Amino acid sequence: MSDSSESQRMENIVSLCKRRGFIFQSSEIYGGLNGAWDYGPLGVELKRNLKNYWWRVTVHERDDVVGMDGSILTHPAVLKASGHVEGFSDPMVDCRLTGKRFRADQISQQSGTVFTYEFARDAAPSDRALQALAQLAETDAEPKFKKTTITSSDALDLAKRIVERRKLSVSLPKGDPESIELFFLDLGVALGQDPRSQWEAEFVSGYSVPNRRISGDAFRVLVRNGESESKADKTARAFYQKRGVQLPVVSLQSKQPVENTQEFNSENGAELTLPRPFNLMFKTNVGAMEDESSIAYLRPETAQSIFVQFKNILEVSRKKLPFGIAQIGKAFRNEINPRNFTFRSREFEQMELEYFCRPEQGMGLLEYWKEERLKFYKQIGIRRDKLHVLTVPDDERAFYSKGTYDIEYDFPFGRQELEGVAYRTDYDLSQHQKASGKSLEYFDEETKQRFIPHVVEPSAGVDRTALALICEAYSEDQAPNEKGKMETRIVLRFHPRMAPIKCGIFPLLKNNSQLVAKAKEIADLLRPHMFVFYDESGAIGRRYRRQDEIGTPFGVTVDFETLGEKDAALRDTVTLRERDSMKQERVAVKDLLEILTSRIR
Ligand code: GAP
Fold it and tell me: Ligand 1 pocket, 352 CB below 6 A?
C-alpha cells in the first residue's frame, strides 16, 4: 500500500477510535495534554482483555511465574543503582528558529544547499535616528507627526513625507529590509546635501551601522534540492528578528552543497543545536518538603520494582530457578516527541516478565521467550507476517545485555517496536545488591552454590499492542444494506478474545414486548460470563453495522421463530450472526452460552 493510503488508513483509525469511544485525547476540553491519552468505554475493555490474556498465559497457565504490583513512586536510590538517573536519556536537539525540540536520532536525512549567515544588521532606525527624524518633522512643521518621539513603524511613513515635502531625489523602498536600508541611507545623503538644522547630521550619524542594532549570531539554513533559494534569506530574517533585529539585513557568508545531513529541522530548514542528553524521567517530591531529600521518580519501567523485590518474592513463593515475576502497570517517560497516536506516549502501561535463571540458561531462554511471545501475538489475532524479529546489533544493545530481540509490527506509519526480549545477565540484581548492601543471591540447595541469578526479560507495551490490535483489526469491505444495496462497511475484525463487546443482543422489533422480554432474558443469561450489549433501536441491519464497527464478533437476534410463532420446533432458538462472514445460524438458547464461551476464550 502507498504511504498516502497508509496515512489515510491511520487517520481513519484515529477518527474511529474517537467516534466510537476507544481513545480520546487527555484533557481534551482544555486543549489536550501532549503524550497522554484516555481510554473510553470500548478502549478500556480492549486493554483489559489484552492484559487479562497476557496475565493468563504468563502467570495463571504456568507454574513457574508469580505476579506482583509495585508502586509507581520510586526511591531515587533504585534508579541510581539501575543507571537510570545517570543514563536514561535521549539525545535532544532544538530548532534554533522555533525552539522546537526533537530527538536527535529521529531527524531525517536531507540534501540540498546550506546557506551560512554571519550576522544581521537592523534596517530600522536606531532610537537616536528616530529622535532626529521626529525633530526634523517638527522643524518642517509636519502636521501629522508633531511629537518628539516616534516608533520605528512610524519612521518609514514619516521619512517618505520628508522626502515628499523637501522634494528630495530619493527612490522609495519596496518593503524588503535591503531596500529600506538603502532608502534611509539615501535620505541621509540627501539631507546632508541640504541641511536646515542640526538634526540632519544627527540623523546621518544615528543611522550609521554602529548605532543600529546588530546580531552577531551565526546561523545556517538548509534549502533542500528543488526548493526556492529565497527561503534561505526569509528563514534567516525570521531568526534574527527573534533576536531583536526588527528589519534584518542579513549577511551571507557562504553557500555549500550538502548530502544526507541531519543538522537541520526538516519542517523549516533552520539549523538545529548540537545534540545533548535529556533525561526522560519524571521527577517529583514526596511529602511536604520540596528539596533534594524528598525527590522521587515516577517509574520509567515496571522492571525495577521486580528486581528490588526479588528476595522477598523468592522467599514467599519458594520458587526454584528458573522462575519468573510478572507485572503489569503504568510507566512514565518524558518523551521528547510523543507521536503516532498512542504509540509513543509519556504515560503508558507495560507488561513485563523478569524470568530468572542460571547463567548457562540465559541464551537458551532468550530464544524460548522470543518464540513464546510470537505465539502470544498470534493468539490475540496479529498475523505472523505483520511481525518481524529484529536482532539488536551489538553496538545498539545495552552494554550489559548478551542478546536482545525487538519484536516489531507493521503499523500504518511504519515498522515499529512492540516489545523487547532481552537477556539482561545479572546486571540489575548485581547493581541493587551493590548499592543496597543486601544480598540478592540465590542459594541452590542441590549444588550448595550461591550466585546472583541471570534474567531474561520480555517487555511489552499495553498501549502499543492495543494500537496494533486496532490497526490489525481495521478493515473496510462491501456489504449489502437493509435494502440490499452494496455499501462500504467498516469492520474491526478483532479476535473474539480481544473484542471489547463479545455479543450484541437484538430483539427484532422494539415494540413487541415478547421479543424484548426474551432478548433481555438472554442478555441477563450471558452477562455474568461475558460483556454483552443489548440494542433495540433502529433497523436490524443498522444495529449489526454498529456492532461490526466496534468489532463485536457475534450478534444474537430474537425473532418470531424464537417465540415459536411460525414453527413450534424453532421455539427458543435464535439467530447467531458472525461478524466477519456475516453468516447466520439457528441455535438453541440453551446452547448459546457454551457456543459463545468456546469461541471467545
Ligand atoms: N524494562 C525494559 C524496557 O522498559 P523498553 O524497550 O524501553 O524496555 C518496553 O520498553 C516496551 O514498553 C516497548 O517495547 C514498548 O512496547 C513500551 N514502551 C516504551 N516506551 C513507550 C512509550 N513512550 N509509549 C508507549 N509505549 C512504550
Answer: yes
Among 348, 401, 405, residue to substitute to test ligand 1 (most atoms within 8 Å of Cβ):
348
Mean pLDDT of 413-424: 97
Q: Are 161 and 168 in contact (CB under 8 A)?
A: no
| For helices 127-139 and 152-166, angle between their N-to-C axes, nearest 10 degrees | 40
Three cell numbers written together for 251? 549577511
Amino acid at the residue 446 = E
- Model's pTM, two decimal places? 0.84
The 10s digit of each residue's pLDDT in 289-316 is: 888 889 999 999 999 999 999 999 999 9
Q: Residue 268 contacts by C-beta under 8 Å, 6 or more apart in sequence?
A: 95, 97, 98, 235
409 vs 14: CA distance, rounded Å? 18
Give the nearest ligand 1 atom to 352 CA: 1
Q: Whose CA is nearest to atom 26 of ligand 1?
A: 461
Query: What is the rounded CA–CA span in Å between residue 28 and residue 345?
Result: 15
Nearest of 131, 101, 437, 30 to residue 273 by alpha carbon: 101
Task: Say which DSSP state 462 is in.
Answer: H
Alpha carbon of 14 to ligand 1 centroid (Å): 21
Q: Which residues contact 216 (CB under 8 A, 6 or more apart)?
A: 118, 119
Residue ranges with strand state E in 454-600:
454-461, 474-480, 486-492, 503-507, 532-534, 554-558, 573-578, 584-588
Q: What are phi and psi of 49, to 5 degrees?
A: -60, -40
Beta-bridge mates of residue 478: 488
d(CA 475, CA 398): 38
Calpha distance 145→133 (Å, rounded): 10
d(CA 259, CA 110): 7
Number of the ligand 1 atom closest to the C-alpha atom of 302: 1
305-362: per-residue pLDDT in tens? 999 999 999 999 999 999 999 999 999 999 998 989 999 999 999 999 999 999 999 9
Q: Tell me the torsion sign for CA atoms 99, 103, 104, 108.
A: negative
Q: What is the share, in percent, of the chain residues with pLDDT greater than 90?
A: 86
Instruction: Give the distance (Å) from ligand 1 centre to CA of residue 461.
Output: 6
Dist CA 466 CA 43 (whole Å): 8
pLDDT at 72 > cutoff 90? yes
Q: How far is the CA of 300 from the centre of ligand 1 (A)?
A: 9
Q: Which three cell numbers stand for residue 427?
A: 546486571
- Per the DSSP assignment, residues forming a β-bridge with 102 are 93
At residue 352, what is the residue type?
Answer: E
462 with 350: CB under 8 angstroms? Answer: yes
pLDDT at 25 over 80: yes
Is any ligand 1 atom within 6 A of the Cβ of residue 419?
yes
Instruction: Specify the residue for cell string 487517520.
Output: 11
272, 107 contact by CB (below 8 A)? yes
Specify whether the CB–CB gap between 418 and 407 falls below 8 A. Answer: yes
Note the pLDDT of residue 474.
Answer: 97
CA 41 to CA 165: how far, in whole Å? 74
Q: Tell me the C-alpha distance between 473 and 409, whole Å.
A: 13
C-alpha span between 309 and 424 (Å, rounded): 17
Tell me, what amino acid is at 371? E
- Ligand 1 centroid – CA 58 distance (Å): 18
Q: What is the mean pLDDT of the chain?
A: 94
